[in-house]
Amino acid sequence: MNYYKNKISASQILLILFICAAPFFVLGGIFRSTGTQFSDFHIINSDEIDYWAESVSLARNGLFSQSGGYFGYSLDKHAKLLNFGAHAPFNLIPFAIAYSICNSQYMALFTNAMLISISLLGFFFITKSSKKTFFTLILLFTFLPFSLYFFTGMIETLIYAGVILIAAFYEKLFKEPENIAKSLRLYILLVIVWSFFRLTMLCFLFPALLVEITTKKKNILWVICKYALLILGTTVFLWFLSASFPWSFIGQWLRSSQKINFFLRHGFSSAFRFLLPTIGDPLEVALRYLYLAWSLTLLIKFLKSIKTEGNGKFYLLGHLLVLTSHLIFVFFFYDFDELRGFRMLAPILAFSLFASLMNHPLPLSKKISFGASFFVWMVFIILAIPQRDSLFKETVLRRLEPIHKSEIFQSVKYTENAHDRWENTVYVDLFIYPDMNYAHFTPGLGMMVFRVDELEGILTESPPDILKAKYLISSSDIFFPGYKKMASDMDISLYQKIKD
Asked: Which of 112, 319, 425, 476 could form a Cys-Cys staple with 469, CB 3.0–4.6 A?
């Protein structure tokens, strides 16, 4: 009886195949509507350059080869272990698998589509519902903060893929007490894996902590200590594998002589600026207010449900813990300008709305869940209408236009069997970082991004041998000790270290 009840019908199989193929249909539709080909796609901003260059290096050399150059910042701020930049190697792995087949930049798009396809397939097997899976597909591709990054080389699609799976498991934590042990283990494993891609995903452990405290007869202090150690261990592990970004708040805070005062001032200042409608792009401002409004809605429902029986109140509290912890992180440890906070908070808002919509019976009324979700989706769509042409240009067309950038990387050579990583490392001036054609970049080279306006001060206070990379690329005319000019193109010059 149970076999036939759980058997997947032919119509479900066809629907799931369509759902999993849909991301590729979207890609095909974009290229067809613009009259372009896959080979026309190219990366345009610094984060995309980082991800692509590190991923193709990983595809060529693997994790542990000593031949690949360093990725990092300033003159020597690279990871303590391995050689990858601020994002550590884990979020590079899906892209590196694709680049091992072909290192063309358009493989990032195929990786994005495949990640969403696999995530939706996993969602189906978790929820056993083709309708919910199809509904999630529609919600995802009509959610503007997601669609802005689907046609890029960023890792946002990877984050949304994890959010979809976490939202599916979240329901099981609170709705299936008979399978709580198995669901809890899988949920924690999933969160830990995605925290390797973005550390703040660890905030999704708070609902698991809540479930253990409320459903298992264990010492509460021991449970809290277990999760604290799990969070601390993951953070330290990633810290050793990541390069510190010297120009962010964390980099400035580490150099500050008044760390407590600087930390608190930054946090409260960020919170104040977060509330100002005059700071940020309209879409970013809308996200901030929608995030707060949705959190307030859940808080009101939670306060009303405190005296009720059942897991409904814990379900709501879990959402509030995830939403609040991410917001606090953005305030005190991050910067939300230049859409950085937008990228951090949008997937979390999507998770909370997705999870609320798919749960049955709903801790929230259907009217609230569907009304709030419809309102969020429509606000983004309405705000996008007057700037639809500019959004489409920035998101899609600029990545398909002919490249008119410096060809200076043609003169940078990769050294097989290098005696150390610096021999395959290039210092690149931050101010001209996106102005080069990376089609000539040789996989395996590493890039240390520096700010030329800081370099003169560093060289004045440091010995000449502080510059270690074999190559240096800059548009500045200042003297680089130990280097000679080798080539120049479009006012960007390549320098090579003089051998002793």
From this structure: 425
Strand partners, 160: none
Using CA atoms of 391, 112, 27, 281 in order, give the dihedral in degrees to the nearest 10.
Answer: -10
Dist. CA 108–CA 477, nearest whole Å: 36
Dist. CA 56–CA 95, nearest whole Å: 8
C-alpha 381/C-alpha 89 separation (Å) is 35
Residue 154 has what DSSP assignment?
S
The vertex-323 CA angle with 317 and 324, nearest 5°, equals 85
Torsion angle defined by CA atoms of residues 369, 371, 373 and 376, in that order, rounded to the nearest 10 degrees = -140
> What is the C-alpha to C-alpha distance for residues 182 and 169, in angstroms, rounded to an integer?
11
Beta strands in 278-433 (DSSP E): 425-429
Angle value at C-alpha 354, between 350 and 360, nearest 5 degrees? 160
From residue 383, give the alpha-carbon distance in Å to each of 287, 390, 391: 11, 12, 11
Characterize the bridge pairing of strands 72-73 and 77-78: antiparallel
pTM as predicted:
0.93
Task: Tell me if 434 sits within 8 A of 45, measured CB to CB.
Answer: yes
Q: Is 361 helix (H, G, I), strand (E, B) or coil?
A: coil
Query: Hunting for tokens 């709903």 — which residue is that?
Result: 362
pLDDT in tens, 433-453: 999 999 889 999 999 999 988
- CA separation for the pair 113, 120 (Å, rounded): 11
Q: How far apart are CA 146 and CA 342, in angstroms?
A: 11
In angstroms, rounded to a whole number, what is the distance separating the alpha carbons of residues 353 and 375?
A: 11
Residue 423 Cα distances to 321, 412, 475, angstroms: 47, 11, 22
pLDDT digits (tens, 9 = 90+) for 353-378: 998 887 655 567 778 888 888 899 99
H or E element that contains 475: none
Which has the closest alpha carbon to 441: 68, 66, 65? 68
Q: In what order do the strands lie in the sheet with 471-474?
A: 77-78, 72-73, 446-450, 425-429, 471-474, 492-497, 483-489
